[in-house]
Amino acid sequence: MKRYKRPVSVLVLIHTPGLQVLLLERAAHPGYWQSVTGSQETGERLSETAIREVAEETGIAASVAELHDWQITNSYEILAEWRHRYAPGVRHNTEHVFSLQVPSERPVAIVPSEHLNYCWLPWREAAAKCFSWSNRDAILMLPGRLSQR
Question: Which residues hold substrate (predicted)?
Answer without folding.
Answer: 5, 26, 37, 132
